[in-house]
């Protein structure tokens, strides 16, 4: 696992940077913290047979999504007076998703509903939106054609926009 981490670290940072790019200035979760949290989650998956680099990056994107959602939920709970103070996930990270916590949670809930309707569409959203993967990388990770990715990406975005009222 350590050798794999060394090989894919730069790519994981690129994915994390993309995911954090849309956040407000001063977002409290730094790129390094997000990469390390996602890696920690991936290291728990000791029975996974990595099929390819794209397969690994798709799972890493899912892990980063879960980390961001967990932080958004925790922030939402804290805003409502729900308990213990938030803690950073490492010394460099000062905190959590703040300004967009509600939106992260709503997007995650909508993505879960989409997965119940069409799992492949949800996986494409995870790869493209959360993972910053190209159409070809997504196609390779999900073992489908690039044309299918393009078509399903368009449908999934339209469905999410309708669902989120955007």
From TrEMBL:
Gene3D superfamilies for the chain: Winged helix-like DNA-binding domain superfamily/Winged helix DNA-binding domain (1.10.10.10)
Recorded GO CC terms: DNA-directed RNA polymerase complex
Aminoacyl-tRNA synthetase as UniProt keyword: no
Cross-referenced InterPro entries: HTH_Sigma70_ECF-like, RNA_pol_sigma-70-like, RNA_pol_sigma-70_dom, RNA_pol_sigma70_ECF-like, RNA_pol_sigma_r3/r4-like, WH-like_DNA-bd_sf
Biological process (GO), any one: DNA-templated transcription initiation
SUPFAM superfamilies reported in the protein's UniProt record: Sigma3 and sigma4 domains of RNA polymerase sigma factors
Keyword Transcription regulation: yes
GO molecular function: sigma factor activity
Identification of the protein by name: DNA-directed RNA polymerase sigma-70 factor
Annotated source species: Steroidobacter agaridevorans
């Amino acid at each position: 696992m350590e050798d794999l981490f060394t090989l894919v670290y730069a790519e994981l940072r690129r994915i994390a940077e993309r995911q954090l790019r849309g956040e407000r200035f001063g977002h409290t979760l730094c790129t390094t913290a997000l990469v390390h949290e996602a890696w920690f989650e991936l290291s728990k998956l000791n029975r996974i047979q990595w099929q390819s680099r794209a397969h690994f990056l798709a799972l890493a994107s899912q892990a980063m999504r879960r980390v961001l959602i967990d932080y958004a939920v925790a922030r939402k709970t804290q805003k409502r007076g729900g308990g213990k103070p938030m803690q950073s996930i490492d010394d460099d990270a000062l905190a959590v998703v703040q300004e967009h916590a509600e939106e992260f949670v709503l997007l995650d809930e909508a993505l879960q509903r989409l997965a119940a309707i069409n799992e492949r569409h949800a996986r494409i959203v995870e790869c493209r939106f959360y993972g910053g993967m190209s159409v070809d990388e997504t196609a390779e990770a999900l073992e489908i054609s690039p044309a299918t990715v393009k078509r399903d990406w368009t449908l999934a975005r339209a469905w999410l926009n309708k669902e989120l009222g955007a």
